[in-house]
Amino acid sequence: MVETFPPPGYIPVASAVDGIEVFMPAPAKTIPQPVSFEFKCPQCGATTFFSAIEGSLTCPNCGYQEELDKSRKGKLAQEFEFTPVTLERSALSQVEGRVDLACQACGALTSVPVTHLSHSCPFCGSNKVFQREALQDNLRPKYLIPFSITQKACADISITWMGSSWMTPRGLKDKSLLSDFTGIYLPFWTFDSVTNAAWKAEVGHDRTERYYQDGEWRTRTVTDWRWESGSVNVIIDDLIVAGTGKLSSRLVSQLIDFDLDDLVDYEPKYLAGLQAHLYDIPLEKAWENGRQQMREKTKSACLEQTSTPKVRNFSMDLDFASESWRYILLPIYLNTYRHASKSYTLMINGQSGEIAGQRPVDWNRIWLVIAVLLSPGVALGLLGIITLAVAGIGVAIGGIGFVMFIIGLAASLVILVQANKLDDI
Length: 425
What we know:
eight-stranded mixed beta sheet; single chain
């Protein structure tokens, strides 16, 4: 029998004697374990959920409520400076992977992305919020805005919004189709900065001059270009930048008008019964996106100083100062529904109820309306051609038909542009 050497579980270490190998037992590997928060009703044992109406943990079975700390931090919530350590920790959250979660109620195993901060068992509905002690979680959210809009209210909001356009199919007003909203906390960064910019540009000043041509005096507009310069200081407070690229940036940008006065300390109980995601856009990348928006805001402030709005050869030297950031979670309701074998997305601000999303278009109705708009002009044009034999009448009718056709064509183009925007993301 041949024995393996070194034995399993041993590793080599430095030896004080040349030619002699020394081994020692390998240190036990510590596997980070998730810390599970299970919210059970102390009265009946049922799973409790966060209620947007009550602002507390609520038992749907017996009505028990557990009050949460509702003291608002608001805009006084702590902000952090940019340091190499925080940037390095932020980059760690880009690591992709999955983790197997075991339901303690029914024993089911569920595979979820590591970016989930919370999880509900799809088999028995048991609700647990997991806080992982892993590298991906080194940079954690410290504040959030709780949900104040209910899932039931989302259905009413979406039905009203869907019915606000005559271009959508009638069947979309079906409440069952638009009621399947999922409450989810999405990651966002907030940035503060003071921008200092010195600018210069050529500014156009229009004047009217008289000139003589073809035996008569005429007037024309002439632009005189003069160099102007100035400086601005712009205070940027709580610029909100998305921390995820998983959803349409156009839709998200329509919903980020959050009132940050409602920020509270991050508390796992606010996530009970809801989903939450870590960021996939790290701090450094989000700061790049934020600085670009700050540049645009600063440029607009510079252009407001010019003596006229006509500008060319604009340049700006820009510095950033007093930079700080926060990592927060904001409430969004998400609904992905299908119509005619195509998926559409609806998003609702969980604080204000503002809605943004895609709407399918009833193209049969669109083309019918366009035909109605164009037909009078076409009909009068044909009538004008037929009646050309009658002196003057055919020309007049044809002219009216041409004008009506142009009006109908312009209206049709407007309708087509609006229709194409309905499902644009």
